[in-house]
Amino acid sequence: MYLNDMANVLRAAGLKVVEVGGWKSHNHGSMRAVRSIIAHHTAGAATGNYPSLNVVRNGRPRLEGPLAQLGLGRDGTVYVISNGVSWHAGPTINDSVYGNYYAIGIEAENTGVGQAWPAVQVDAYARMIAALCRHYKVPVSAVKGHKEICYPAGRKIDPHGLPGDMNGLRQRVQSILSGNNGGGNTPPARNLAREYGDNMLLVPAGGKSKTELDYVTVPLSILREHDLVLAPGVGAELYIKSINTWKNQFNAQNGADVMNPGGVGAILRDFTVWAPGGKSIIVPKGVAKVDIAFYSRVRWSLAVYPR
Ligand SMILES: [Zn+2]
Fold first, then answer.
1. Which chain residues have CB less than 5 Å from ligand 1, an ion?
2. Which terminal residue of the chain, N or C, has fewer Cβ atoms less than 10 Å from its own Cβ?
3. Distance, CA 154 to ligand 1 centroid (Å)?
């Protein structure tokens, strides 16, 4: 089994994906199945986004690449390196689950000697694993750190220093898979927080149809209620599939607290906003972020006002 759909699966999860040249023919043979996902750190250089790309793709003396199917840069970019068996696991406690023929390996860039993991990378690590679990039907219990499955025990220390260690990573994955939000659409990784000033965000046209949507994420101060005002351009139609709410995602994004997700419900569903006019929606206090699933053929505006 060759994992030729991997890049599309990860892109569909909202991740930024780089397909490394030749990845669909770069492997040590066919996977026999996908039964586990193994998290690693590269122990590479301290700077740069993914300085280990060359070694993960091409290997090192006496160990030919690929050394993992996937890489993860410090900025959350996913590098798709191989579609098949890669030499990442080595001897394991159960090769029929965690061995190279059954395990997808992810080499995330980190020195492994105490370097902090950027929040955006921690977030992407969970999102990419969740997408792989969902697509290849791997249980979260089979998401392991290399240090947890290596044989003999103690042979490996990676991944080192993730917030909450491997249990923290598995909880983030489980939270994404459980949809521990208000019950709307699966949220994207896309975050336009820095793009809106003066409370106004101009959202690009998005979605191919009312069933092929695009998403915009709007972070809010969790301390107060807000008004969201959605306004399409003159003569235009804005279709909202859902506005879904999240609690505590500010903390989650900053790596501080992923233990208490859960929104207050989807506050708008299946609604069309026509110009002129627009639609005003109250977002209750306690919501840290909303994800808007929408379809619009033209740019529209989104304003956020504290109440
Ligand atoms: Zn490793």
1. 40, 146, 158
2. C
3. 12
